[in-house]
Amino acid sequence: MSKFIRALPLILVASAAMAQDADQATNSAANLNIPANVQLLGKVDPHLRKATAIVNGAIITGTDVDQRLALIILANGGQVPDAERDRLRLQVLRNLIDERLQIQEAKTHDITIERSEIDRSYNQVAQRFKQTPEGLGAYLRNAGSSDRSIKGQIEGELAWSRLLRRQVEPFVNVSGGEVQSVLDRLQATKGAKEYRVSELYLSATPETAAAVSDNARKIIEAVRGGGSFQAYARQFSEASTASVGGDLGWVRAGQLPEALAQSLETMQNGQIAGPIAIPGGFSILVLQDSRQVLTTDPRDAVLNLRQISLKFDAKTSEAEATARASALAKATQAMGGCGKAQEVATQLGAELVDNDQVKIRDLPAPLQETLLKMSVGESTPPFGSMTEGVRVLVMCGRDEAQTANGPSFDQIMSQMEEDRVNQRAQRYLRDLRRDAIVEYR
Protein backbone atom coordinates (compact mmCIF):
# COMPACT_ATOMS: atom_id res chain seq x y z
CA MET A 1 0.00 0.00 0.00
CA SER A 2 2.99 2.27 0.24
CA LYS A 3 5.16 3.13 -2.75
CA PHE A 4 8.15 4.28 -0.68
CA ILE A 5 11.41 3.47 -2.43
CA ARG A 6 13.45 2.88 0.68
CA ALA A 7 16.80 2.46 -1.06
CA LEU A 8 16.76 6.01 -2.43
CA PRO A 9 17.92 9.26 -0.83
CA LEU A 10 14.82 10.95 0.56
CA ILE A 11 14.10 14.45 -0.67
CA LEU A 12 13.23 16.08 2.62
CA VAL A 13 11.20 19.21 3.11
CA ALA A 14 10.49 18.40 6.76
CA SER A 15 12.60 21.18 8.22
CA ALA A 16 10.86 23.97 6.35
CA ALA A 17 7.45 22.40 6.78
CA MET A 18 7.81 21.99 10.54
CA ALA A 19 9.12 25.51 10.93
CA GLN A 20 6.16 26.79 8.94
CA ASP A 21 3.77 24.74 11.07
CA ALA A 22 5.31 26.18 14.23
CA ASP A 23 4.89 29.76 12.92
CA GLN A 24 1.29 29.05 11.95
CA ALA A 25 0.58 27.58 15.39
CA THR A 26 2.00 30.68 17.07
CA ASN A 27 0.01 33.02 14.84
CA SER A 28 -3.17 30.99 15.31
CA ALA A 29 -2.85 31.13 19.09
CA ALA A 30 -2.38 34.90 18.93
CA ASN A 31 -5.49 35.27 16.76
CA LEU A 32 -7.60 33.43 19.34
CA ASN A 33 -7.14 36.30 21.83
CA ILE A 34 -6.80 33.95 24.84
CA PRO A 35 -6.03 35.75 28.15
CA ALA A 36 -2.74 34.93 29.85
CA ASN A 37 -4.43 33.89 33.13
CA VAL A 38 -6.93 31.21 32.15
CA GLN A 39 -9.48 30.01 34.72
CA LEU A 40 -11.44 26.89 33.77
CA LEU A 41 -15.14 27.08 34.68
CA GLY A 42 -15.66 23.40 35.29
CA LYS A 43 -13.69 20.22 35.71
CA VAL A 44 -12.76 17.91 32.84
CA ASP A 45 -10.61 14.81 33.34
CA PRO A 46 -9.97 13.01 30.02
CA HIS A 47 -8.84 9.90 31.89
CA LEU A 48 -12.34 9.46 33.32
CA ARG A 49 -13.89 9.38 29.86
CA LYS A 50 -14.97 5.99 28.61
CA ALA A 51 -13.03 4.87 25.53
CA THR A 52 -15.93 5.08 23.09
CA ALA A 53 -16.98 7.61 20.48
CA ILE A 54 -19.50 8.26 17.72
CA VAL A 55 -17.85 9.65 14.58
CA ASN A 56 -20.35 11.23 12.20
CA GLY A 57 -22.80 8.56 13.35
CA ALA A 58 -20.34 5.61 13.26
CA ILE A 59 -19.86 3.98 16.65
CA ILE A 60 -16.47 3.03 18.12
CA THR A 61 -16.99 0.65 21.04
CA GLY A 62 -14.78 -0.13 24.01
CA THR A 63 -14.25 -3.56 22.49
CA ASP A 64 -12.93 -1.95 19.29
CA VAL A 65 -10.38 -0.03 21.34
CA ASP A 66 -9.37 -3.02 23.48
CA GLN A 67 -8.87 -5.32 20.49
CA ARG A 68 -6.78 -2.78 18.56
CA LEU A 69 -4.75 -2.09 21.69
CA ALA A 70 -4.10 -5.83 21.99
CA LEU A 71 -2.60 -5.78 18.47
CA ILE A 72 -0.12 -3.09 19.51
CA ILE A 73 0.80 -4.94 22.69
CA LEU A 74 1.25 -8.11 20.64
CA ALA A 75 3.61 -6.26 18.26
CA ASN A 76 5.67 -5.26 21.30
CA GLY A 77 5.96 -8.78 22.63
CA GLY A 78 3.38 -8.14 25.34
CA GLN A 79 5.89 -6.11 27.36
CA VAL A 80 3.92 -2.89 27.92
CA PRO A 81 3.65 -1.38 31.45
CA ASP A 82 0.16 -0.62 32.78
CA ALA A 83 0.78 3.14 32.75
CA GLU A 84 1.81 2.91 29.11
CA ARG A 85 -1.36 0.98 28.28
CA ASP A 86 -3.51 3.91 29.45
CA ARG A 87 -1.67 6.28 27.13
CA LEU A 88 -1.79 3.77 24.28
CA ARG A 89 -5.55 3.36 24.75
CA LEU A 90 -6.11 7.09 24.20
CA GLN A 91 -3.93 7.02 21.09
CA VAL A 92 -5.76 3.94 19.76
CA LEU A 93 -9.06 5.78 20.10
CA ARG A 94 -7.66 8.71 18.08
CA ASN A 95 -6.40 6.29 15.43
CA LEU A 96 -9.79 4.58 15.19
CA ILE A 97 -11.47 7.96 14.79
CA ASP A 98 -9.10 8.77 11.90
CA GLU A 99 -9.82 5.34 10.41
CA ARG A 100 -13.58 5.96 10.46
CA LEU A 101 -13.11 9.39 8.91
CA GLN A 102 -10.98 7.93 6.11
CA ILE A 103 -13.53 5.21 5.31
CA GLN A 104 -16.41 7.70 5.41
CA GLU A 105 -14.63 10.15 3.12
CA ALA A 106 -13.85 7.37 0.66
CA LYS A 107 -17.52 6.40 0.55
CA THR A 108 -18.56 9.98 -0.24
CA HIS A 109 -16.44 9.56 -3.39
CA ASP A 110 -18.10 6.22 -4.23
CA ILE A 111 -15.13 4.18 -3.03
CA THR A 112 -16.14 1.01 -1.21
CA ILE A 113 -13.70 -1.75 -0.34
CA GLU A 114 -15.20 -5.14 -1.15
CA ARG A 115 -15.08 -7.88 1.47
CA SER A 116 -13.15 -10.11 -0.94
CA GLU A 117 -10.34 -7.51 -1.14
CA ILE A 118 -10.11 -7.29 2.64
CA ASP A 119 -10.03 -11.09 2.92
CA ARG A 120 -7.21 -11.32 0.35
CA SER A 121 -5.10 -8.85 2.32
CA TYR A 122 -5.91 -10.63 5.58
CA ASN A 123 -4.82 -13.95 4.06
CA GLN A 124 -1.49 -12.36 3.08
CA VAL A 125 -1.03 -11.21 6.69
CA ALA A 126 -1.73 -14.78 7.83
CA GLN A 127 0.92 -16.09 5.41
CA ARG A 128 3.50 -13.67 6.84
CA PHE A 129 2.72 -15.12 10.27
CA LYS A 130 3.03 -18.61 8.71
CA GLN A 131 -0.57 -19.32 9.71
CA THR A 132 -3.81 -20.24 8.00
CA PRO A 133 -6.48 -17.49 8.13
CA GLU A 134 -8.37 -19.56 10.69
CA GLY A 135 -5.21 -20.20 12.71
CA LEU A 136 -4.38 -16.48 12.79
CA GLY A 137 -7.89 -15.72 13.99
CA ALA A 138 -7.50 -18.15 16.89
CA TYR A 139 -4.05 -16.71 17.69
CA LEU A 140 -5.45 -13.16 17.79
CA ARG A 141 -8.40 -14.15 19.99
CA ASN A 142 -5.94 -15.77 22.38
CA ALA A 143 -4.10 -12.42 22.60
CA GLY A 144 -7.31 -10.47 23.29
CA SER A 145 -7.78 -9.18 19.74
CA SER A 146 -9.65 -10.53 16.70
CA ASP A 147 -9.49 -10.91 12.94
CA ARG A 148 -12.21 -8.23 12.78
CA SER A 149 -9.80 -5.67 14.25
CA ILE A 150 -7.10 -6.37 11.67
CA LYS A 151 -9.67 -6.39 8.87
CA GLY A 152 -10.95 -3.01 10.03
CA GLN A 153 -7.45 -1.59 9.81
CA ILE A 154 -6.99 -3.16 6.37
CA GLU A 155 -10.24 -1.60 5.16
CA GLY A 156 -9.17 1.83 6.41
CA GLU A 157 -5.76 1.62 4.73
CA LEU A 158 -7.17 0.38 1.42
CA ALA A 159 -9.92 3.01 1.39
CA TRP A 160 -7.52 5.86 2.20
CA SER A 161 -4.95 4.67 -0.33
CA ARG A 162 -7.57 4.49 -3.09
CA LEU A 163 -8.99 7.87 -2.14
CA LEU A 164 -5.54 9.49 -2.34
CA ARG A 165 -4.95 7.92 -5.77
CA ARG A 166 -8.17 9.51 -7.01
CA GLN A 167 -8.29 12.83 -5.17
CA VAL A 168 -4.66 13.74 -4.49
CA GLU A 169 -2.15 11.97 -6.73
CA PRO A 170 -3.47 13.37 -10.06
CA PHE A 171 -2.82 16.90 -8.79
CA VAL A 172 0.77 16.30 -7.65
CA ASN A 173 3.41 17.29 -10.18
CA VAL A 174 7.19 17.06 -10.12
CA SER A 175 9.09 18.73 -12.96
CA GLY A 176 12.00 17.20 -14.82
CA GLY A 177 14.10 20.14 -13.72
CA GLU A 178 13.52 19.33 -10.06
CA VAL A 179 14.56 15.72 -10.59
CA GLN A 180 17.65 16.71 -12.56
CA SER A 181 18.60 19.09 -9.76
CA VAL A 182 18.52 16.18 -7.31
CA LEU A 183 20.64 14.02 -9.62
CA ASP A 184 23.18 16.84 -9.94
CA ARG A 185 23.36 17.22 -6.17
CA LEU A 186 23.91 13.48 -5.76
CA GLN A 187 26.85 13.56 -8.16
CA ALA A 188 28.25 16.63 -6.41
CA THR A 189 28.12 14.85 -3.04
CA LYS A 190 29.57 11.54 -4.22
CA GLY A 191 31.45 9.93 -1.35
CA ALA A 192 29.56 11.84 1.36
CA LYS A 193 28.07 9.81 4.20
CA GLU A 194 24.37 9.02 4.22
CA TYR A 195 22.17 7.25 6.71
CA ARG A 196 19.20 4.89 6.72
CA VAL A 197 16.99 6.49 9.36
CA SER A 198 13.64 5.92 11.04
CA GLU A 199 11.89 8.81 12.80
CA LEU A 200 8.99 9.22 15.18
CA TYR A 201 7.80 12.85 15.23
CA LEU A 202 5.54 14.35 17.92
CA SER A 203 4.26 17.89 17.48
CA ALA A 204 4.28 20.25 20.47
CA THR A 205 3.55 23.83 21.43
CA PRO A 206 5.49 25.72 24.12
CA GLU A 207 2.65 24.88 26.53
CA THR A 208 2.66 21.13 25.78
CA ALA A 209 6.42 20.69 25.26
CA ALA A 210 7.12 19.20 28.70
CA ALA A 211 4.32 16.61 28.45
CA VAL A 212 5.21 15.65 24.86
CA SER A 213 8.90 15.31 25.75
CA ASP A 214 7.95 13.05 28.67
CA ASN A 215 5.80 10.90 26.34
CA ALA A 216 8.74 10.63 23.94
CA ARG A 217 11.03 9.43 26.74
CA LYS A 218 8.50 6.75 27.69
CA ILE A 219 8.40 5.53 24.08
CA ILE A 220 12.21 5.35 24.01
CA GLU A 221 12.23 3.36 27.26
CA ALA A 222 9.63 0.96 25.83
CA VAL A 223 11.67 0.44 22.62
CA ARG A 224 14.89 -0.11 24.58
CA GLY A 225 12.96 -2.63 26.65
CA GLY A 226 12.20 -4.67 23.53
CA GLY A 227 9.23 -2.82 22.04
CA SER A 228 8.86 -2.41 18.28
CA PHE A 229 9.90 1.06 17.08
CA GLN A 230 7.95 0.51 13.85
CA ALA A 231 4.77 -0.25 15.82
CA TYR A 232 5.16 2.87 17.96
CA ALA A 233 5.93 5.05 14.93
CA ARG A 234 2.89 3.70 13.10
CA GLN A 235 0.60 4.54 16.02
CA PHE A 236 2.12 7.75 17.40
CA SER A 237 4.19 9.54 14.76
CA GLU A 238 2.63 12.64 13.22
CA ALA A 239 4.99 12.59 10.23
CA SER A 240 3.91 11.34 6.81
CA THR A 241 6.16 8.29 7.26
CA ALA A 242 4.00 6.86 10.06
CA SER A 243 2.36 4.39 7.64
CA VAL A 244 5.78 2.78 6.93
CA GLY A 245 6.90 2.62 10.55
CA GLY A 246 8.78 5.93 10.43
CA ASP A 247 11.22 4.87 7.67
CA LEU A 248 12.82 7.98 6.11
CA GLY A 249 14.93 5.96 3.69
CA TRP A 250 18.52 7.02 2.94
CA VAL A 251 19.28 10.64 3.89
CA ARG A 252 22.31 12.86 4.35
CA ALA A 253 22.79 14.81 7.56
CA GLY A 254 22.45 18.10 5.67
CA GLN A 255 18.93 17.17 4.56
CA LEU A 256 17.67 17.09 8.14
CA PRO A 257 17.02 19.86 10.69
CA GLU A 258 20.28 20.85 12.38
CA ALA A 259 19.44 19.25 15.73
CA LEU A 260 18.68 15.90 14.05
CA ALA A 261 21.82 16.10 11.92
CA GLN A 262 24.02 16.67 14.97
CA SER A 263 22.53 13.68 16.77
CA LEU A 264 22.79 11.46 13.70
CA GLU A 265 26.49 12.10 13.18
CA THR A 266 27.29 10.76 16.67
CA MET A 267 25.04 7.66 16.54
CA GLN A 268 26.02 4.05 15.95
CA ASN A 269 24.02 1.65 13.76
CA GLY A 270 21.03 0.32 15.67
CA GLN A 271 21.08 3.15 18.23
CA ILE A 272 17.99 5.15 19.26
CA ALA A 273 18.26 8.84 20.23
CA GLY A 274 15.85 11.43 21.57
CA PRO A 275 13.71 13.21 22.37
CA ILE A 276 15.36 15.79 20.10
CA ALA A 277 13.78 19.25 20.11
CA ILE A 278 13.13 20.59 16.60
CA PRO A 279 10.86 23.36 15.27
CA GLY A 280 7.29 22.35 16.03
CA GLY A 281 7.93 19.42 18.34
CA PHE A 282 10.23 16.51 19.17
CA SER A 283 11.76 13.65 17.19
CA ILE A 284 13.03 10.20 18.09
CA LEU A 285 15.60 8.74 15.68
CA VAL A 286 16.80 5.20 15.04
CA LEU A 287 19.92 4.76 12.86
CA GLN A 288 19.46 1.56 10.90
CA ASP A 289 22.53 1.74 8.65
CA SER A 290 25.05 4.07 7.01
CA ARG A 291 27.01 4.22 3.74
CA GLN A 292 28.72 6.63 1.32
CA VAL A 293 26.80 8.28 -1.53
CA LEU A 294 27.35 6.62 -4.94
CA THR A 295 30.31 4.69 -3.58
CA THR A 296 30.75 0.93 -3.68
CA ASP A 297 30.36 -0.63 -0.24
CA PRO A 298 31.76 -4.14 0.43
CA ARG A 299 28.64 -4.84 2.49
CA ASP A 300 26.59 -4.69 -0.72
CA ALA A 301 28.21 -7.95 -1.85
CA VAL A 302 25.58 -10.63 -2.55
CA LEU A 303 26.13 -14.05 -1.00
CA ASN A 304 24.91 -17.58 -1.59
CA LEU A 305 24.74 -19.16 1.87
CA ARG A 306 23.88 -22.54 3.31
CA GLN A 307 22.66 -22.56 6.89
CA ILE A 308 23.09 -25.63 9.11
CA SER A 309 20.89 -25.43 12.21
CA LEU A 310 20.78 -27.47 15.41
CA LYS A 311 17.67 -27.26 17.58
CA PHE A 312 17.51 -28.26 21.23
CA ASP A 313 14.48 -29.64 23.01
CA ALA A 314 13.50 -28.75 26.57
CA LYS A 315 15.31 -31.79 27.98
CA THR A 316 18.70 -30.84 26.50
CA SER A 317 21.18 -29.76 29.18
CA GLU A 318 23.55 -26.86 28.70
CA ALA A 319 26.51 -29.26 28.64
CA GLU A 320 24.87 -31.37 25.91
CA ALA A 321 24.06 -28.26 23.86
CA THR A 322 27.63 -27.01 24.18
CA ALA A 323 29.00 -30.38 23.08
CA ARG A 324 26.72 -30.51 20.03
CA ALA A 325 27.63 -26.92 19.10
CA SER A 326 31.34 -27.80 19.34
CA ALA A 327 30.79 -30.84 17.12
CA LEU A 328 28.99 -28.62 14.60
CA ALA A 329 31.86 -26.14 14.58
CA LYS A 330 34.48 -28.86 14.13
CA ALA A 331 32.56 -30.61 11.33
CA THR A 332 31.80 -27.45 9.33
CA GLN A 333 35.35 -26.11 9.59
CA ALA A 334 36.71 -29.44 8.27
CA MET A 335 34.16 -30.19 5.53
CA GLY A 336 35.94 -28.11 2.85
CA GLY A 337 33.06 -26.16 1.34
CA CYS A 338 29.36 -26.46 0.58
CA GLY A 339 29.48 -29.79 -1.23
CA LYS A 340 29.42 -31.82 1.98
CA ALA A 341 26.99 -29.56 3.87
CA GLN A 342 24.06 -31.95 3.45
CA GLU A 343 26.16 -34.91 4.58
CA VAL A 344 27.36 -33.07 7.69
CA ALA A 345 23.83 -31.89 8.52
CA THR A 346 22.52 -35.45 8.27
CA GLN A 347 25.30 -36.83 10.47
CA LEU A 348 24.62 -34.25 13.19
CA GLY A 349 20.82 -34.41 12.99
CA ALA A 350 20.74 -30.80 11.83
CA GLU A 351 18.55 -28.91 9.36
CA LEU A 352 19.99 -27.51 6.11
CA VAL A 353 18.52 -24.40 4.45
CA ASP A 354 19.77 -22.58 1.34
CA ASN A 355 19.78 -18.77 1.37
CA ASP A 356 20.46 -17.21 -2.03
CA GLN A 357 20.88 -13.53 -2.95
CA VAL A 358 21.62 -12.34 0.59
CA LYS A 359 23.30 -8.95 0.96
CA ILE A 360 25.90 -8.75 3.71
CA ARG A 361 24.44 -5.43 4.92
CA ASP A 362 21.05 -7.10 5.55
CA LEU A 363 22.54 -9.43 8.18
CA PRO A 364 23.16 -8.62 11.89
CA ALA A 365 26.26 -6.49 12.48
CA PRO A 366 28.40 -9.21 14.18
CA LEU A 367 27.81 -11.54 11.20
CA GLN A 368 28.63 -8.76 8.72
CA GLU A 369 32.12 -8.35 10.15
CA THR A 370 32.71 -12.11 10.03
CA LEU A 371 31.40 -12.63 6.49
CA LEU A 372 33.38 -9.70 5.08
CA LYS A 373 36.57 -11.57 6.03
CA MET A 374 35.44 -14.98 4.73
CA SER A 375 36.16 -16.65 1.39
CA VAL A 376 33.93 -19.04 -0.56
CA GLY A 377 33.81 -22.44 1.17
CA GLU A 378 34.47 -21.11 4.66
CA SER A 379 32.03 -21.28 7.58
CA THR A 380 31.14 -18.92 10.40
CA PRO A 381 31.60 -19.94 14.03
CA PRO A 382 28.37 -21.28 15.57
CA PHE A 383 25.94 -18.64 16.85
CA GLY A 384 22.59 -18.74 18.62
CA SER A 385 21.21 -19.82 22.00
CA MET A 386 19.63 -22.68 23.90
CA THR A 387 16.12 -21.49 23.06
CA GLU A 388 16.66 -20.47 19.42
CA GLY A 389 19.14 -23.20 18.52
CA VAL A 390 22.66 -22.96 17.09
CA ARG A 391 23.45 -22.12 13.47
CA VAL A 392 26.43 -22.02 11.13
CA LEU A 393 26.55 -20.20 7.79
CA VAL A 394 28.64 -21.65 4.96
CA MET A 395 29.58 -19.29 2.13
CA CYS A 396 28.90 -21.04 -1.21
CA GLY A 397 29.17 -18.03 -3.50
CA ARG A 398 29.95 -14.32 -3.42
CA ASP A 399 29.23 -11.60 -5.99
CA GLU A 400 31.13 -8.44 -5.11
CA ALA A 401 29.31 -5.13 -5.04
CA GLN A 402 29.14 -3.40 -8.40
CA THR A 403 29.95 0.25 -8.98
CA ALA A 404 27.20 2.33 -7.41
CA ASN A 405 25.29 4.19 -10.11
CA GLY A 406 22.68 5.70 -7.79
CA PRO A 407 18.93 6.03 -8.34
CA SER A 408 17.48 6.57 -11.78
CA PHE A 409 15.57 9.64 -12.99
CA ASP A 410 12.25 7.76 -12.72
CA GLN A 411 13.00 6.45 -9.23
CA ILE A 412 13.76 9.92 -7.89
CA MET A 413 10.63 11.35 -9.52
CA SER A 414 8.52 8.60 -7.96
CA GLN A 415 10.05 9.28 -4.54
CA MET A 416 9.39 13.02 -4.78
CA GLU A 417 5.81 12.46 -5.91
CA GLU A 418 5.20 10.07 -3.02
CA ASP A 419 6.59 12.57 -0.52
CA ARG A 420 4.29 15.31 -1.80
CA VAL A 421 1.27 13.02 -1.78
CA ASN A 422 1.97 12.19 1.86
CA GLN A 423 2.17 15.85 2.80
CA ARG A 424 -1.16 16.60 1.13
CA ALA A 425 -2.68 13.51 2.74
CA GLN A 426 -1.78 14.91 6.15
CA ARG A 427 -3.55 18.18 5.36
CA TYR A 428 -6.54 16.27 3.96
CA LEU A 429 -6.92 14.26 7.18
CA ARG A 430 -6.50 17.41 9.26
CA ASP A 431 -9.43 18.98 7.39
CA LEU A 432 -11.56 15.87 7.95
CA ARG A 433 -10.89 16.02 11.69
CA ARG A 434 -11.78 19.70 11.80
CA ASP A 435 -15.16 19.18 10.07
CA ALA A 436 -16.11 15.94 11.85
CA ILE A 437 -18.82 15.61 14.48
CA VAL A 438 -17.33 13.39 17.18
CA GLU A 439 -19.34 12.60 20.32
CA TYR A 440 -17.42 10.95 23.15
CA ARG A 441 -19.18 8.59 25.57
Overview features:
Chitinase A, domain 3, alpha+beta, 11 strands, four-stranded antiparallel sheet, 14 helices, 441 residues, Triger factor/SurA peptide-binding fold
Word description of this protein:
With 441 residues, the chain is an alpha+beta fold. It has helices at 14-31, 62-75, 82-108, 115-128, 133-142, 147-167, 176-188, 209-224, 229-236, 258-264, 318-334, 341-348, 365-372, 409-435, and strands at residues 53-55, 58-60, 193-203, 247-252, 272-278, 281-292, 302-310, 351-359, 383-385, 389-399, 438-440. It has three domains: 47-190 and 404-441, Porin chaperone SurA, peptide-binding domain (Triger factor/SurA peptide-binding fold); 193-292, Chitinase A, domain 3 (Roll), CATH 3.10.50; 298-399, Roll (Chitinase A, domain 3). Helices cover 47% and strands 17% of the residues. A four-stranded antiparallel β-sheet has the order 4-3-6-5. A four-stranded antiparallel β-sheet has the order 8-7-10-9. It is globular, with a radius of gyration of 25 Å. Mean pLDDT is 81; it is low at 1-28.
Secondary structure topology:
Blueprint (H helix, E strand, L loop, with lengths): L13 H18 L21 E3 L2 E3 L1 H14 L6 H27 L6 H14 L4 H10 L4 H21 L8 H13 L4 E11 L5 H16 L4 H8 L10 E6 L5 H7 L7 E7 L2 E12 L9 E9 L7 H17 L6 H8 L2 E9 L5 H8 L10 E3 L3 E11 L9 H27 L2 E3 L1
Antiparallel strand pairs: 1-2, 1-11, 3-4, 3-6, 5-6, 7-8, 7-10, 9-10
